[in-house]
C-alpha cells in the first residue's frame, strides 16, 4: 500500500464546481468508509422531492407516532438507491451502527427506524435512500482530477443547517469562497 495513503473516513467530501455528474452538483458527502478497497458515503445535500418518512415507515410496516410526513428523506447517492441508510448522532447502540467518527455513525437496521418513527431515535439523523460509492483508487483519482475536495465533518452542517446552505458552508469551513472557484480543472 502507498505509504502516503490516508483515509478520509469521517470527513466531508465537497464537489468542486467542475464536477459534471448531476448526482453530485454542489453536494456534500459524509464519508462513512474509506480504505484501500474503496469509499462510501451519504450525500447530505439532496432531499428526495417525492418521498418522506411516512412513506418509508408505511413501506416497512412501521407504526409512526410522530408527524412522519415532515421527516425528509435524502437521496444518499446513486448506489444501492433502493436501500435505506441512517446517518446519525448519539446514541450509537443500534443493531447495525457503524461508527464513522466520534460524533456520527451509519446504521441501516430496523430498530433505529422504529425508534425514529416513535420519536425515540437519535436527536440528529438523516434518513437516506442510496449511497455514494467509489472503487479502489477511484476517489483518490477523482480528487487528483479536481472533482472533489475534502474537509472536516461538522455536526451543525450535517444536521442543523438548511440543506441548500450545506455545500457553501462546508467550503467556507475550509477557507474557500465558492464564488471564486472556477469550474475547470487545472494543473500547475
Automatic annotation (TrEMBL):
It comes from Desulfosarcina alkanivorans. One of its GO terms (cellular component) is cytosol. The lineage of its organism: Bacteria, Pseudomonadati, Thermodesulfobacteriota, Desulfobacteria, Desulfobacterales. PANTHER family: UNCHARACTERIZED PROTEIN YQGE, UPF0301 PROTEIN YQGE. InterPro entries: AlgH-like. Belongs to the UPF0301 (AlgH) family. Pfam families: DUF179 (PF02622). This is UPF0301 protein DSCA_14030. Transmembrane segments: none annotated.
Amino acid at each position: 500500500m502507498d505509504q502516503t495513503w490516508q483515509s478520509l473516513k469521517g470527513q466531508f467530501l465537497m464537489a468542486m464546481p467542475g464536477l459534471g455528474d448531476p448526482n453530485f452538483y454542489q453536494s456534500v458527502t459524509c464519508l462513512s468508509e474509506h480504505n484501500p478497497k474503496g469509499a462510501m458515503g451519504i450525500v447530505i445535500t439532496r432531499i428526495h422531492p417525492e418521498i418522506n418518512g411516512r412513506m418509508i415507515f408505511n413501506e416497512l410496516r412501521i407504526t409512526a407516532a410522530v408527524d412522519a410526513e415532515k421527516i425528509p428523506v435524502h437521496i444518499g447517492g446513486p448506489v444501492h438507491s433502493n436501500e435505506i441508510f441512517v446517518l446519525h448522532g448519539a446514541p450509537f447502540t443500534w443493531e447495525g451502527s457503524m461508527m464513522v467518527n466520534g460524533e456520527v455513525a451509519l446504521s441501516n437496521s430496523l430498530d433505529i427506524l422504529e425508534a425514529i418513527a416513535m420519536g425515540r431515535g437519535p436527536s440528529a439523523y438523516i434518513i437516506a435512500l442510496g449511497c455514494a460509492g467509489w472503487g479502489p483508487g477511484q476517489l483518490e483519482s477523482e480528487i487528483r482530477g479536481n472533482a472533489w475536495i475534502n474537509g472536516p465533518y461538522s455536526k451543525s452542517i450535517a444536521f442543523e443547517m438548511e440543506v441548500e446552505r450545506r455545500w457553501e458552508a462546508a467550503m467556507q469551513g475550509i477557507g474557500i469562497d465558492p464564488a471564486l472557484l472556477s469550474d475547470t480543472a487545472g494543473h500547475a
